[in-house]
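ok so for the tutorial part 2 we go from a plain amino acid sequence to predicted structure tokens. step 1 is just haveing the sequence, like this:
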Amino acid sequence: MEEGVQRRVQVDHDERRAQVEHEQAGDARAATDTSRNTIVAKGNKPKKSPKKNSGDALVGVMHRFVDIKEKEATKEDGNEFSITRCMAELRTLQEITPDEKLMALKLFKIADNREMFVNLVADKDGTALLWIRRHI
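step 2 — the prediction. this is what the tokens look like for a chain of 136 residues:
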């Protein structure tokens, strides 16, 4: 009976050694397989490695943000109701005083006011000057 126990211990020992050797071989493959971004785990099942460059996503977001801001800036330059256009139209009003002119500039900070002013000036009936005087 003692001989049977020794044989079983030897078999268990041999099986464990084979398992350790297999795992070590798997670790060696994992080290050489990194060029394919996979890790070979127990059972030789490839797994995707975690992303290493998490900053790439942030860089992409920042590029999109810059693109949006550039488009907005370009859009404002081509805006038919720009502050520059309002100031040019303001100079065409002959009866406006320098104080009224300065107060009107505050009104032009709001896009809706600029649009209304430009359209009123186009009417050429004096309503643009009345509109400014009522809002300052």
